[in-house]
Amino acid sequence: MSTSKQPLPDRFFQALLRLLPFDFRSEFGADMEETFRAQRSNVERERGLAALLKMWWATIADIVRMAPREHASVLAQDTRYALRMMRKNIGYTVSAIVILGLGIGVNTSIFSVVNSVLLKPLPYAQGDRLVSLRQPEPKLGIDDIGFSPMELGDYRAQNHSLSGIVEYHNMTFTLIGGAEAYRVRTGVVSYNYFDLFGVKPVLGRTFVADEERPGAPAVLMLSYEFWKQAEHGDPNIIGKVYQMNDRPHTVIGVLPPIPQYPNENDVYMTSTSCPFRSSLGSLTRRRGFAMNLFGRLKPGATPDMCRADLRAISARLMKDYPAFYRPGSGYFADASVLRDDLTHGARPMLLALLGAAAFVLLIACANVANLILARMARREQELVIRTAVGAGAGRLLRQLLTESLILALLAAMVGIAFASGSLKLLIQFAGQLTPRAREIAIDGWVLGFATLCATGTTVLFGSMAALCSRRDVGSGLKDGARAGVDRGRQVVRSVLIATQVAFSFILLVGAGLMIRSFLEMQRVNPGFVSQRVLAVGINLNFTRFHDRSMRASVANRILEKISPQPGVLSAAVSSSFPMDPDDAGLAGARTTFQIEGRSQEETERTRPVASFRTATPDYFKTLGIPLLSGRTFTEFDRFNDFDKPDTELVAVISGSLAQTRFRGQDPIGKRVSFDRGDSWARIIGIVGDVKEFGPNRDAPETFYLAQGQNPLLGSLLLRTAGDPKSLLTQVRQAVREIDPQIAITESETLEQARADAVASPRTITRLFGVYAGLALVIAVIGIGSMLALWVRQRTREIGIRMALGASPGAILGGVIRQGMLLVVFGLAAGAAGAVAVTRLIKTLLFQVEPTDTYTFALVPALLLAAALLACYVPAKRAARIDPQAALRAE
Amino acid sequence: MAHTQAPLTPALFQVLVALADGDKHGYAILKEVEEQSAGEVQLSTGTLYGIIKRLLADGLIVEVRRRPAVENDDQRRRYYRLTAEGREVAVAEAVRMEKALERARTKHLLKVPKPV
């Protein structure tokens, strides 16, 4: 059919025929052309132009209409054929689907987290236009000093880039009127806080301006979780009146389940309902009240414009109030996009995990490509025959692609099942990193991602394999050409094996580093003995216990009642405890101080800041914190009358505070002030440092003050003889007997708190471990099955060699050498890759270098051992080949 | 893909009828169908070969290897023949149509009843 000499209409018709499937064309194409030519010339001759045009129209329309149907019928036929082939090779099919499915599942699950946390817009109206404001003092190492009500007024009045600024701070109050007294985490906000975020309540309404007027009746919004848990999702909750801070508080609305930022809260109130926020002192002091501010960018304003705007305002404040904003502090005002704030903690870990997951998928792909290649070798005869009976190369490619696609869809289903199975675990994991964890779900994007991964990889590798076989299909009938073809394919397969080993190596090194880092973290001495210590949160309704002597006496009464109980070795009351999960984000209570005898100027310049905690005498004994020098508190370190202090104010300091602030002098006997010299506390002892915020963070410089002189009740700590948890009922009972309005909040053992402090490194280490394990297994299976195939294809050759006198041992060694050579190549490539890649997870490592010698020595050993095992099985089979049977078989 | 139970489409029936009196190639079928139906049924090439493919698959027609000794026989042309099964189906369809016609007549839908 030389097209060049044909008239244009015929050539056009030929082109039209290309819309039809290959099969159809090769069957009827020539005949159709002939028929069409006859029909066309007849119509041209006998009927005229109108009929001709009509004929053309009908011809074109019919072919366009029938093309999809014909393609579908070919697809159906191919699918049936593919399914039959897959059933026939069920071993291959299942292993390919499972391996790919796992690779895709691992990726899909991590992608579902990345998608919800990093990619999706915030679930607030125009969430990307929200910013959070900060006032850092970088020269003092302070990220944010927070905003006072006065500053809020200044920024509201002077900014040009924000369409609204709302405030937020977080308090803990006691809520009475539910099933029991709850200690509720309370968000104190502007009336339009939720409007700015664009949050619509699921029940009731949000606050209105009137409710933030001084003296307005107090109202509450409940968080979705609090409403569900404490009120069992009561649909008639609106209008319920609770007692809080000795005032009635009426519920006006319930929030939807949204990520709460900066903290999770149980209830929200307006700023005027907070007794601290609305006190005269807070309203008239320029400094000393730390609120968060959030704003919405005006239309057209960029985050950079907003930053410049805020800087200008802070510069004015510095000029107007030099006493409050010192130039030495580096003070300025700044804004960051809320979305970054919410997710910056999670980003490095998630990206590292996504990277690791991608490696698993690559290994899975290399493995499946090998499976496909191996299978192609076995199907060669079939393909050759089909070519011989007239199936074109395109036709075969289409058939193979259909098979790949079916494989892909099944693998995607396995992957999605895997991802949805692990969803709960992932939400838990991501919850340690970002408040957006609750948004994680398998949505259309995730399904699309899984399908894309599956089809992309299988079609790529499937057609690669198909192309490999296509090239040699012609030579397949000629036996002589086969050896060369086999060699070429062998090279591709060898490269794929080495690639798998290399990627597994990198993943194993990553996991190894994570494990090493985690072990290092576990080895860190936290500075206290966490075993068998129970921490019980206690919360006094402060309107009732506003008097300091009342609070001090409650602490005493609790200890008097608890200490003699059986099983209690020692007990203490303190304001907080180390690694308290509720406290972790806040870096504890901080205070500035000055040392007696140091000049005002020096204090201003260095502006010393330290953590502080109040504690009863047995605190150090209960937690096992060693006394380094001096003494700790006694029962005499207390005020009998808080208005007229009758004993000297005393303080115990941590070792690091002694070292950095007293520079070789003995701090004992020195005095410090926390209130600019109004009162002075004498240092009486030095105790060991405590890793307050987790093993991977430095121990803060800490002051301990006596509960008897500074009654701040936050937790009750018990060192127990047996299981700490078993004492909880006793403790609840005892506290309720003292006063039913004392709320007992969460309780946990310090062991738990310590474990929780490293929860996210633990999870990421586990995930890395699982991925690396998966990679190792897939790679080892790959090596084993490739060698098995190699042995099978060379049965005859091995038989000849044995017949010529090669010993089984030599055959065994030969096969193992064949496999291990690839492994060694893979190891070398992997080592180079690992050195390059592990640098990326440096920030996730604790006291371990990315090129850690142990890890880099141990991982190859592990891989070699596993690979040796994988090679041994087929090698053993090769060594057992019966030369006579092998020679006969050909 | 057995469509033998279902009523045939008019075009399909016409193709079977066209082949009833001898083997024909594609264009001959096309022309005959047009003439038989007095121009009412006009098949395009695509439709014709869609039908041919289906009839071949269902075993109602076959391609004939032995080519008729026609003076202007083209090597590219393929000839089709009605199989016994194809004939059966065509007859069954004709009978079905006749019965339908009969019913229409008894209901006086057709004004002039014509004796066969």
Beta content of chain B: 5-15%
Number of helices, where a helix is a run of at least 4 consecutive DSSP H or I residues of chain B: 4
User: How would you spell out the order of helices and strands of chain B?
Assistant: HEHHEEH
Class based on secondary structure composition and strand pairing of chain A: alpha+beta
Question: Can you tell me the CATH class of chain B?
Answer: Mainly Alpha
Protein structure class of chain B: mainly alpha
Overall helicity of chain A: 40-55%
Number of separate domains of chain B: 1
Most extensive chain-chain interface:
A-B, 24 and 19 residues
How many DSSP-defined strands of chain A?
A: 22
- Mean pLDDT of chain A, rounded to whole units? 85
What oligomeric assembly is this protein in? Answer: heterodimer
Structural summary, described in words:
The complex is a heterodimer of chains A (890) and B (116). With 890 residues, chain A is α+β, with helices and mostly antiparallel strands. Chain A folds into four domains: 8-70, no CATH class; 136-332, no CATH class; 347-523 and 759-889, no CATH class; 541-741, no CATH class. Chain A is built from 26 helices and 22 strands. The mean pLDDT of chain A is 85. Chain B has one domain (10-67, 75-106): Arc Repressor Mutant, subunit A (Orthogonal Bundle), CATH 1.10.10.10. Chain B has four helices and three strands; from the N terminus they run αβααββα. Chain B has helices spanning 10-18, 26-36, 45-58, 84-106; strands at residues 24-25, 61-64, 79-82. In chain B, strands 1-3-2 form a three-stranded antiparallel sheet. In chain B, helix 1 (10-18) crosses helix 2 (26-36). Chain B is elongated. Classes of the chains: A alpha+beta (890), B mainly alpha (116). Chains A and B meet through helix 2 and helix 3 of A and helix 2 and helix 3 of B.
